[in-house]
Give the backbone structure.
Amino acid sequence: MAFIETRLLDRVAYGTQGGPTWSTLRVPLRSGIVRRKARRARPQYRFMVLYQNLLPDHHDDVIAAFNAARGGLHSFRLKDWSDFVAVNETIATGTGSAQQVQLTKTYTFGNQSLVRTIRKPVTGTVSLTANSSPLSATIDYTTGVASFTTTNGAVVRWSGQFDVPVMFEQDELMFAANNRGAAGLFLTADISLVEDLAA
């Protein structure tokens, strides 16, 4: 299996769904208390993408992506329209020497936080600052690793856009031919995608 550094067609229709999923073990006790334990250390994102009334070229793009990816074999990029931007996310403290730091995004609610690894930033969108001043850095847009050197103690933050690495959840792609329009528009079936946690 391989990773395809290309984003799947962005022209999603109303009704497209997606977001993070967790896996929690719940054990009800006789007292009525429910014991809970996390089965995963991080969420896995899932999507149900709807493509409706695609132009013929876009229709071909979806078929090409599915076949080139060999169904669920290879992974690729997807834009999560509900969460694709990071703003001033703190990722490191400067050491005065060369550093390589993974881009992350932190989600906080009350006294609980989750740090999400950002593995697929969007090319050309990432900028770094050190103590709020622009910081020159090299970004590996295939891994989300930033390389830089800044003064000892400087707070390093990043902003930019990112994609989710996903794969097709099924190995078949069906089409509803009864929805072809006069202009050659075509309605594809729903497409189920799941995050590739290994990408």
Q: What stands out?
A: The first strand starts at residue 3 and ends at 7.
